[in-house]
Design a protein that fits this description.
By secondary structure, this protein is of the alpha+beta class. The protein contains 9 helices and 15 strands. 28% of the residues are buried.
């Protein structure tokens, strides 16, 4: 587990979390109140709730936790069953003592020297987007599809790069604007006391602060130096490539470098559930 954990405290605001995620590249941070763990805030929370500013409303409250003596296989099982990328580690007093993430499990797999080929056991089907697709649309597609990374192709269907949530957070901006609400009340044609059917006119202006993706093509934000592997790559070899490149996924390409599928770290940790590797 990671023991030097970056945390935030409530009361607090979204901007502090966004700065941390941009600076560190991590995918989420525990939220503390009076030194007690009360929630988790992730990239998804910021991207899916762009107008929310309060940490207490952004975070997932009462997150699932784990004890320091739990096995790696149990941690992997919990993450896969609950579709989460991290588990806060707490002691018997529920004090936060660390954080175990999928990235930590990937490092463990890299050290295990597993020679089993990834082939179709750990890889997932994928789809791709055109390199000119606007970033706001990319963000919406990722939210609707549930994919955390999407390959990017050019006009010739050649792989040009890959875009993930980390890249979206890196280029996200805080946009402040003023919106107006019309609270006018109208009368009817039978109301003799109204003039042009208007009883009363009220306009309320209020400020909105939201996380916004710039209206630029995805090629301006994607990672172009893509680490790719063939279908017969070995499990620990792929884990090591992920750890060294600090990526959560590896595109799988065939002999002529055509995109075939994708290997996500959350799928690769299935190897820890295999009894022969425990």
């Amino acid at each position: 587990m990671t023991t030097d954990v970056v945390t935030v405290e409530i009361p607090g605001n979204r901007d502090d979390v966004l700065k941390i995620l941009k600076r560190t590249g991590i995918s989420g941070v525990p939220v503390l109140k009076s030194e007690k763990l009360v929630g988790i805030i992730t990239r998804k929370d910021l991207l899916h709730k762009p107008e929310e500013n309060q940490l207490a409303l952004l975070m997932t409250p009462d997150p699932l936790t784990i004890r320091p003596d739990v096995s790696l296989s149990e941690a992997a099982r919990m993450m896969r069953q609950r579709h989460i990328r991290r588990l806060p580690v707490v002691d018997e007093t529920k004090k936060l003592v660390g954080l175990i993430s999928i990235a930590d499990l990937i490092l463990a797999i890299a050290r295990m020297k597993i020679e089993e080929e990834i082939d179709d056991v750990y890889t997932s089907p994928t789809f791709a987007l055109w390199e000119e697709t606007p970033l706001p649309l990319v963000g919406r597609i990722m939210e609707m599809s549930g994919y955390e990374a999407i390959p990017i192709l050019n006009r010739d269907s050649k792989l040009q790069g890959i875009i993930c949530e980390r890249d979206l957070i890196r280029c996200a901006m805080i946009e402040d604007s003023v919106e107006t609400s019309d609270l006018s009340t109208t009368g009817t044609d039978d109301d003799e006391w109204t003039w042009e059917s208007i009883r009363d006119v009220h306009h309320i202006s209020y400020g909105i602060s939201r996380v916004q993706l710039p209206n630029r093509p995805v090629k301006s934000a994607m990672i172009t130096n893509v680490v790719m592997v063939p279908p017969n790559a070995e499990v620990s070899e792929c884990a090591l490539k992920m750890k060294r490149a600090r990526v959560d996924q590896l595109p799988i390409v065939n002999g002529d470098n055509r995109l075939k599928s994708i290997l996500f770290d959350k799928e690769l940790i299935k190897v820890l559930l295999d009894e022969k590797y425990q």
